[in-house]
Backbone:
């Protein structure tokens, strides 16, 4: 088949045409841990972007779980929020699906405050045992767990090429990408794990290998912390970003470090919202905006 002169000209024109960058603004908001401040700042961020990504850990430790989750659900329903799994939501969902290990681990890691908020009075527990009474509080928790299992993602890549994830990216001792699951590597491993989570909850298979990969120990995917030191000490931020095929990584989870900026490519925005601090993040075609509760607003040009 020949293109002809017109076809060739059209191909050259397309090749030489400047690539257009989507005119979109995408927000990122860190771990809420049931702090009602998250609701206020989610509204603030929503007014500045087309949609936002919640980086996980909406629940636990604080005492406003219902306000935070209800807000997230409402924003998700309107197409304004992409919710990501945090280690706390994953443990909570497993616990609601009757995983005893997950229940014990969840309670030890802040789930006790969530239980306290939804604690069922003793007389309702007695009624439930005698006549099958289904307490309203339990129905709410079950509804939250079901919403999470049907809608949460492990990661999100926005239209501008930024990758959002809860805990960060597993790296080896040399600071290079080291994600492996079920015979898959890199992003394909995460896509496989994300599909397996949904299938495991759908079939109520709490022994599925995906849970071992994600949260079986402090070194598993949803809990690991050593990756950041490895990236910093080896100076591999650009190498990791390039290996993932993205141009930026935005993560939460590491609240003790506050706002993190590595080479304007890797951003940590957990920033201790559960202690009354925190920040919001906006990704635009030319720069990123960081707005902190206490330190004001900064505009940073992209590398």
Residues:
């Amino acid at each position: 088949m020949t293109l002809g002169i017109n076809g060739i000209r059209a191909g050259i024109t397309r090749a030489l045409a400047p690539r257009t960058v989507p005119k979109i603004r995408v927000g990122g908001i860190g771990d809420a841990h049931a702090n009602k401040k998250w609701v206020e700042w989610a509204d603030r961020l929503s007014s500045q972007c087309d949609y936002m990504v919640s980086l996980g850990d909406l629940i636990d430790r604080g005492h406003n779980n219902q306000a935070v989750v209800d807000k997230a659900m409402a924003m998700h329903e309107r197409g304004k929020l992409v919710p990501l799994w945090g280690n706390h939501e994953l443990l909570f969902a497993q616990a609601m699906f009757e995983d005893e290990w997950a229940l014990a681990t969840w309670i030890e890691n802040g789930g006790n405050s969530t239980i306290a908020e939804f604690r069922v009075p003793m007389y309702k527990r007695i009624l439930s045992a005698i006549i099958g009474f289904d307490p309203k509080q339990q129905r709410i928790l079950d509804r939250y767990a079901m919403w999470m299992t049907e809608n949460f993602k492990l990661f999100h890549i926005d239209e501008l090429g930024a990758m959002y994830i809860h805990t960060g990216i597993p790296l080896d001792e040399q600071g290079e990408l080291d994600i492996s699951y079920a015979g898959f590597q890199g992003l394909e491993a995460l896509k496989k794990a994300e599909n397996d989570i949904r299938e495991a909850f759908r079939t109520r298979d709490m022994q599925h290998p995906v849970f071992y990969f994600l949260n079986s120990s402090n070194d598993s995917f949803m809990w690991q912390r050593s990756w950041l030191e490895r990236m910093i000490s080896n100076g591999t931020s650009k190498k990791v970003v390039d290996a993932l095929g993205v141009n930026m990584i935005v993560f939460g989870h590491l609240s003790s470090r506050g706002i993190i900026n590595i080479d304007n490519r890797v951003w940590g925005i957990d920033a201790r919202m559960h202690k009354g601090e925190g920040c919001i993040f906006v990704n635009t075609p030319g720069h990123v905006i960081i707005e902190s509760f206490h330190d004001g607003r900064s505009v940073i040009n992209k590398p």
About this structure: The first strand starts at residue 26 and ends at 29. The domain at 24-301 is CATH 3.60.21.10 (Purple Acid Phosphatase; chain A, domain 2). The chain is about 45% helix and 15% strand. The first helix runs from residue 4 to 16.
